[in-house]
Write a structure and sequence with these properties.
The complex is a heterodimer of chains A (327) and B (363). By secondary structure, chain A is α/β, with parallel strands linked by helices. Chain A has helices at residues 7-21, 45-49, 61-73, 92-99, 102-105, 135-139, 152-164, 213-226, 244-254, 269-281, 305-308, 312-320, and strands at 3-6, 25-29, 54-56, 77-81, 115-120, 145-147, 169-174, 181-184, 197-200, 205-209, 231-235, 238-240, 257-264, 290-294. A seven-stranded mixed beta sheet of chain A has the order 3-2-4-5-7-6-12, with helices on both faces. Chain A has a five-stranded mixed beta sheet with strand order 9-11-10-13-14, sandwiched between helices. In chain A, strands 1-8 form a two-stranded antiparallel ribbon. The chains are: A alpha/beta (327), B alpha/beta (363). Bound molecules: thiamine diphosphate.
Chain lengths: 327, 363
């Protein structure tokens, strides 16, 4: 049964359903209580579940995540909100040194089933420290799962899966997509974290994107179709684990690929995708895999963010350069 | 709104119940622990000292990669465990291996980390001892989380969270005290002030009147105790645990002690402190002090003492035996415990190593 809803609605429903389904789920962070979070993702949860299940903490990100680790060690399933991407950095040590390593340190005896929700990336006119694409920091850390939905339906399903996961999940919520509406069927079974999906079929080249870059890829594919070029679009959905199978099958079927990501390109998830695909699909490639990414600069001020963000035009320009003369 | 702060302030001097010569020191508001507790602490002190000596020896023999000794701090090591119940938790640092052993963890398992075999050698859930924390102060927040979860589940668990004086400068120390106070979680923070963070003296760590004074800013009661007097520690920590269990919120206890040995075997304390500074502390040894008291009060006899020494010797023998041989390391474990289910990438990498080993004939 489908309905039209925003990603923000879908995330709120996921939290609500998880809180209903499992007493051990706890939601906390800054302003997530009566206010419902600055993006209203936790709207109404304190009212429905009480201030022991959904509560405000003191303003301290390391404290939030560190306490969540202890709670997870002792039988609970915390879902914490970091208010904005760049404000998660004070919690980085807890994430990297403890959440990611606890299972390994204890030889499998102690897992930390928690979810760190991070409203992330740009395109919303935010001032500095409100628009970082921080996925590479997380993806580089063994022990963490890293997920970035691009649709309301995925946002719901992946968040439910993340909360059920026995391991820590960094759940990246593209701010730009919070309030975009789409048809969604929340009752549909969701594949486990780690599966990519082909969002649009195509035969000439494959666009690989995740999170906020997915709509850009779809738009580019639509525009290319008008010009007679058939572009396939793969949405990664999960960065860790990475779905080599789906991505490689897609690239082999077209022989050409472009990776699109908002984050700076240097030493990034997009570079990882290019490396992996090249290693596995070299003989199927008719052209080098290209990337369209943010520049290697601190995220620009709002008036200039359009320069940084991968645009449909940039994607189409790069697609044009995919050495079409070689069949 | 301001609240009355006086009751949060620590005493002007650290609480002492037995002086360095073994004589009782009467204290208003702090009674002597009962004799059995003191005798038990004495036995544990002998074991803890023997543990430290043996671990140092094992480093010299190359059996341990490194050992941060708690020699001279054994009263803290023993007391912070003896005031806990079976259901309570201990959150130790790298220096608190003697405390872990006092808790009943097998000494060889307790040294697994320092031996370089695996990170946590014991099962934290079964022993209720968290993995030893190397990053400073980060574990104090986990302690708050464990205690908070316990309270939400209706258990009356208390968590003992231990750190050093240097760790009190870290942001996580402050976040932990604040979170614990706001949520009234039953955590006893024990700061073992041993005067040094590697080479840096306390004066470079803080300008506060004492580390226990730090509690007042968070609404946490602070107390100072003589960290070489096991009787005072049992009393002060025991009362703190009782208050935390009774729902009075977190407690902060600063134990004044001294790190008489080097930071670790890799450290050269001659570069930052003189022998003259160390000497007086040797005269305040926690073990000698309690022994003198028990002698004066005739709470133990020579037979008891030999029994305790024998037990400690057996533990040392177990350490020598358990650490005598190289541990057998299994490379598959490296890939097995990163996630509950290994990712496809990890499976691939594991079979790559397996192939390599098969080729080299080492599998
Ligand atoms: C976050 C962090 N920074 C630096 C270090 C390196 N380091 C290890 S022990 C230590 C000194 C700690 O002193 P203190 O907290 O007083 O404990 P003690 O060693 O005296 O028991 C330092 C700086 C560390 N382990 N963690």
């Amino acid at each position: 049964m489908t309905e039209k809803l925003t990603m923000a609605n879908a995330l709120n429903r996921a939290l609500r359903d998880a809180l209903r389904a499992d007493d051990t789920v706890m939601v906390f962070g800054e302003d997530v209580g009566p206010l419902g979070g600055v993006f209203r993702i936790t709207d109404g949860l304190t009212a429905e579940f009480g201030d022991q299940r959904c509560f405000d903490t003191p303003l301290a990100e390391s404290g939030i995540l560190g306490m969540a680790i202890g709670m997870a060690m002792n039988g609970l399933r915390p879902v914490v909100e970091m208010q904005f991407d760049a404000f998660a950095y004070p919690a980085f040590e807890q994430l990297v040194s403890h959440a990611a390593k606890m299972r390994n340190r204890t030889r499998g005896k102690v897992g930390v089933p928690l979810v760190i929700r991070v409203p992330y990336a740009g395109g919303v006119g935010g001032v500095e420290h409100h628009c970082d694409s921080s996925e590479a920091y997380y993806a580089h850390t063994p022990g963490l799962h890293v997920v970035a939905p691009a649709t309301p339906e995925d946002a719901y399903g992946l968040l439910r899966r993340a909360i059920e996961s026995p391991d820590p999940v960094v759940f990246l919520e593209p701010k730009k997509l919070y309030f975009s509406r789409a048809e969604a069927d929340l009752s549909k079974p969701v594949p486990p974290i780690g599966r990519a999906v082909v969002r649009r079929e195509g035969t000439d080249a494959t666009l690989i994107a995740y999170g906020p870059a997915v709509p850009v890829a779809l738009e580019a594919a639509e525009a290319a179709a008008q010009e007679g070029r058939s572009l396939q679009v793969v949405d990664l959905r999960s960065i860790v684990p990475f779905d080599d199978e789906t991505v490689c099958a897609a690239v082999r079927s077209t022989g050409r690929a472009v990776v699109i990501a908002e984050a700076a390109g240097f030493a990034s998830v997009s570079s990882e995708v290019v490396a992996r695909v090249t290693e596995r699909c070299f003989h199927s490639l008719a052209a080098p895999i290209r990337r369209v990414t943010g520049f290697d600069i601190p995220y620009p001020p709002p008036k200039l963010e359009h320069v940084q963000l991968p645009s449909v035009d940039r994607v189409l320009d790069v697609v044009d350069e995919l050495q079409w003369e070689y069949a | 709104m301001t609240r009355d702060a006086a009751h949060l302030l620590p005493s002007a001097e650290p609480v002492t119940l037995i002086d360095p010569d073994g004589h009782p020191v009467p204290q208003v508001g702090h009674s002597m622990p009962d004799p059995q507790a003191l005798v038990r602490a004495y036995a544990a002190l002998i074991t803890a000292r023997r543990f430290n000596d043996q671990a140092n020896a094992l480093v010299r023999q190359g059996r341990l990669a490194v050992y941060p000794s708690s020699h001279g701090q054994e009263a803290c090591q023993v007391a912070c465990v003896q005031v806990l119940g079976d259901g309570d938790w201990l959150f130790p640092t790298y220096r608190d291996t003697a405390a872990i052993v006092t808790r009943g963890v097998d000494p060889v398992q307790a040294l697994t980390l320092l031996r370089g075999d695996w990170h946590s050698g014991y099962d934290p859930l079964q022993t209720r001892v968290a993995p030893q924390a190397t990053p400073l102060a980060t574990h104090l927040l986990h302690a708050v989380g464990v205690a908070h979860a316990a309270r939400l589940r209706g258990e009356d668990t208390v968590v003992m969270a231990v750190c050093g004086d240097g760790a009190t400068s870290e942001g996580d120390f402050h976040e932990a005290l604040n979170f614990a106070a706001v949520f009234r979680t039953p955590v006893v923070f024990l700061v073992q002030n041993n005067e040094y963070a590697i080479s840096v003296p306390l004066a470079r760590q803080t300008a506060a009147p004492s580390l226990a004074h730090k509690g007042i800013g968070y609404g946490v009661k602070g107390e100072r105790v003589d960290g070489n007097d096991v009787a005072a520690l049992l009393r002060v920590l025991g009362d703190a645990v009782d208050r935390a269990r009774a729902g009075e919120g977190p407690q902060l206890v600063e134990a004044h002690t001294y790190r008489v040995q080097a930071h670790t075997n890799a450290d050269d304390p001659g570069r930052y402190r003189s022998e003259d500074e160390v000497a007086p502390w040797l005269g305040r040894d926690p073990l000698v002090r309690l022994e003198a008291y028990l002698g004066i009060t005739k709470l133990i006899n020579e037979t008891d003492r030999s029994r305790f020494v024998e037990h400690a010797e057996a533990l040392a023998a177990r350490m020598r035996e358990g650490l005598g041989e190289e541990p057998v390391a299994d490379y598959r474990e490296l890939f097995a415990y990163v996630y509950a289910e290994p990712t496809p990438q990890l499976r691939e990498q594991q079979s790559m190593v397996a192939d390599e080993m098969a080729r080299e004939g080492t599998a």
